[in-house]
Amino acid sequence: MHCQRVKDILSFEVRNLRQSFLIKMNILVILLIVLAVLVLWLWSLYNTLVTMKNRIKASKQEIGNQLKRQSDLIPNLIESVKGYLQHETGIFDKLTEARKTIMSAVESGSSQKMADASDLLQKALSSLKVIVESNPQIQGNQVVKDLMENLRDTADKVMYSRRLLIDLVADYNINLTTFPNVLVVKLFGFTEEEGLKLPEGASFNVKTEELVTPTVKL
Q1: pTM (global) more than 0.85
Q2: What pLDDT score does 2 carry?
Q3: 117, 199 contact by CB (below 8 A)
Q4: Rounded mean pLDDT of 158-178?
Q5: Which residue has the higher pLDDT, 12 or 39?
Q6: Which domains does the chain have, with CATH numbers?
Q7: Lowest mean pLDDT among 56-65, 176-185, 189-198
Q8: Residues 134, 205, 196, 188, CA torsion sign
Q9: SS in 3 state form for 130-193?
Q10: Which site from 99, 110, 112, 160 is most exposed, i.e. has the minimal number of CB atoms within 10 Å?
C-alpha cells in the first residue's frame, strides 16, 4: 500500500511537470510567433522606406537632368535670336542669369533650389516668348521654334517631376510619422524629407514623345 501511494505521488508529479512543460512550450511558441511577426513587420517597413527614399532620390535626379537639358539649350536659343533682338539685351541677361542659377542649383542637389531656378528660367522664357511673338522674322525661324518648343516640353517634364516629388515626399513623411512606425523609424536612421512648393497655375501634362532627348541643328 505504501508503494502504491509512492507511485501515485510520482505519477502526480510527472503530470504536473508535463503540464508545466507544455505551458512553457506554448508560451515559447507564442513568443516566437510574435517575434517572427515583429521581425517581418520591421523588415517590410525598412524595405518600404528604403524604396520610397530611392524614388525620391530618382525624382530629384530627374529634375536635375531636365534642368541640365534646358541649360544646354539656352546658349543655342540666345545665339539664334540675338541677331533679331539687338536692342533687347535685357532678356539675354535674364536668360544667362537663369542658366547660371540652374547650374548652381543642380550642383547643390537641393530640390527647392532647383525648383526656384526653374521658376526663374520660366519667367525669362515668358518674357522672350512675348518678344518672339511680336517679331514676324523670329516666328519664321524654324530653329528658334524648335528650341522654344523643346524648352517648353522640358519645362513640362520638370513640373511633372516636381509634382511627383511632392507626392513621394508626402507619402514618405506620412509613413514616418504614423503609429506604430514612428516608434521605430529613428532606430533605422530615417528622417523626414523636406518638401517643395509649386508655382501657382502649374501644369503637369507630359506627353510620351517628350521623353525623347531633343536634337536641334543650328
Answers
A1: no
A2: 59
A3: no
A4: 93
A5: 39
A6: 2-211 (1.20.1440.20)
A7: 189-198
A8: negative
A9: HHHHCCHHHHCCHHHHHHHHHHHHHHHHHHHHHHHHHHHHHHHHHHHHCCCHHHCHHHHCCCCC
A10: 112
